[in-house]
Amino acid sequence: MELELRFFATFREAVGQKTLTREYDSDEMTVRDVLQELEAEYDDLAGAILEDGEIQDMLTVLKNGRGVAHGDGADTVLEDGDTLAVFPPVAGG
C-alpha cells in the first residue's frame, strides 16, 4: 500500500520535509499504525502525536482532507493511495 504523508509547521520541521510517500507491506493499516511508526522513526515526533494510542486532542489529522476525529479516529482504516495530513496545535491571538 502506498500513502502520501503531509506535515505542517513543527511537524514538518521534525520530519525535515513537507511530504513523504511511503510504501507499507500490509494492506490493513490504520491511522494509529502509521502514526506509531512515524513517532518511532523521528525522535522529535515521539510522544507528540499519540497519547496512550489515541490522537492527542489538540491535533488535527486528515485522511484525504477529512478529519479522522469525526469518524473512527486512530482506528480509521487507510487504503492504497490515501493522503494523511498531520497538523500540530495552532495558537494565535
Rounded radius of gyration (Å): 12 Å
Mean pLDDT: 94
Strand order of the largest sheet: 2-1-9-6-7
Global morphology: globular
The poorly predicted ranges are none
Oligomer: single chain
Distance between the amino and carboxyl termini:
41 Å
Helix content percent band:
10-25%
Which structural traits does this protein have?
5-stranded mixed beta sheet; alpha+beta; globular; 2 helices; two-stranded antiparallel ribbon; 93 residues
Topology at a glance:
Elements: E1 2-7, H1 10-15, E2 19-23, E3 29-30, H2 31-41, E4 50-51, E5 54-55, E6 60-63, E7 66-67, E8 77-78, E9 83-87
Parallel strand pairs: 1-9
Antiparallel strand pairs: 1-2, 3-8, 4-5, 6-7, 6-9
How does this structure look, described?
With about 90 residues, this protein is of the alpha+beta class. It has 2 helices and 9 strands. The chain has helices at about 10-15, 30-40; strands at about 1-5, 20-25, 30, 50, 55, 60-65, 65, 75-80, 85. Strands 2-1-9-6-7 form a 5-stranded mixed beta sheet. The protein has a two-stranded antiparallel sheet with strand order 3-8. Strands 4-5 form a two-stranded antiparallel sheet. The mean pLDDT is about 95.
